[in-house]
Amino acid sequence: MIFESFSESLSFFLWSTFIIAVILGAIVNKTNFCTMGAVSDMVNMSDYGRFRAWLLAIAVATIGVSVLEYMGLLSVSDSFPNYRGSQFIYLENILGGILFGIGMTYASGCGNKTLIRIGGGNIKSILVFIVIALIAYYMTTPFPDSDKTLYSVLFYGWVNPMAVTLDGNQDIGALIGGSENTEIMRLVAGLVVAGGMLFYIFKAADFRSSKDNILAGVAIGLIILAAWYTSSNIGVNADDSDYSLGEYYAEWDMLADSDEGRPATGRALNTQSFTFINPIGQTYGYVKDGFDPALLTFGLISVFGVILGSFLWSLISRSFRIEWFADLKDFLNHFFGAVLMGFGGVLALGCTIGQGITGMSTLALGSILTFLSIVFGSAMTMKIQYYKLCYEDEATFGKAFITALVDMKLLPSSMRKLDAI
Question: Which of 388, 385, 379 is nearest to 407 (CA)?
Answer without folding.
Answer: 379
